[in-house]
Design a protein that fits this description.
mainly beta; five-stranded antiparallel beta sheet
Length: about 110
């Protein structure tokens, strides 16, 4: 049995073709991400990957829509989204399929 800590991973990403990674693969990327109220990720899209975001705890806003624990947001290739954390401790799981290196493209900043 091996062990590690999520805090040792870059931005919560622990599966995928990057360092560090617990399992190197181009098939997918998986992260557990925790946020503080006000944390914000600029609008972006992926040309190759579909991104699945599961809100585990807390509240977040994506594309002006508020999501809560239990909500799942699926962003298909070329669909843009931003991300704003609405309360401390918001945690989500993100899965990207396939794991495509350098597949994040920033778009114009949206009004929050």
């Amino acid at each position: 049995m091996k062990t590690d800590k999520l805090q040792n991973m870059k931005g919560g990403w622990f599966i995928g073709n990057f360092d560090p990674s617990l399992f190197k693969t181009n098939d997918c990327e998986i992260a557990v991400k925790s946020y503080k109220k006000g944390d914000y990720e600029a609008p972006h899209y992926h040309k190759i990957a579909t991104e699945y975001t599961v809100i585990i705890m807390g509240r977040a806003k994506m594309n002006g829509v508020e999501y809560h624990a239990g909500d799942i947001v699926i962003m298909e290739p070329n669909e843009s989204t931003d991300f704003e954390c609405l309360e401390d401790g918001t945690t989500n799981v993100v899965v990207k399929i396939p794991g495509a290196n350098n597949d994040k493209y920033l778009t114009e900043e949206r009004q929050r």
